[in-house]
Design a protein that fits this description.
107 residues, alpha+beta, Hypothetical Protein Aq_1857, Chain: A, 3-stranded mixed sheet, 2 helices, globular
């Protein structure tokens, strides 16, 4: 399960509305890269693929491919607009090490 806190939900709904396209899903995933080895990916999509898990939390429909899901299970998607920067934050209990900016991790 992947959870979405209220601030992230509000921001995602705003972005989906602003996008003004037919995107109805938020796609999250993990790909190779970043200074710690793996990096998070967040995008919008309008179609579910065969290898996607569909997760609904806090009014948001998330799509996660099955490979990424293994890395993200138990993660909470948050949004920060504090002094340290603005953006989405993946609070991932599976990550053993993260980089200073929080955009990449390793297991």
């Amino acid at each position: 399960m992947i959870n979405i806190n209220n601030k992230a939900k509000d921001r995602l709904l705003y972005l989906l509305d602003k996008e003004s396209s037919n995107n109805q899903f938020v796609r999250v995933g993990v790909e190779s890269g970043g200074c710690s080895g793996l990096s998070y990916k967040l995008d919008f999509d309008n179609a579910k693929k065969d290898d996607d898990e569909l997760i609904e939390d806090n009014g948001i429909k998330l799509l996660v491919n099955k490979k990424s899901y293994l890395y993200l299970v138990g993660t909470t998607l948050e949004f920060s607009d504090g002094l340290n920067g603005k953006g989405f934050v993946f609070n991932n209990p599976n990550a053993n090490r993260t980089c200073g900016c929080g955009e990449s991790f390793s297991l």
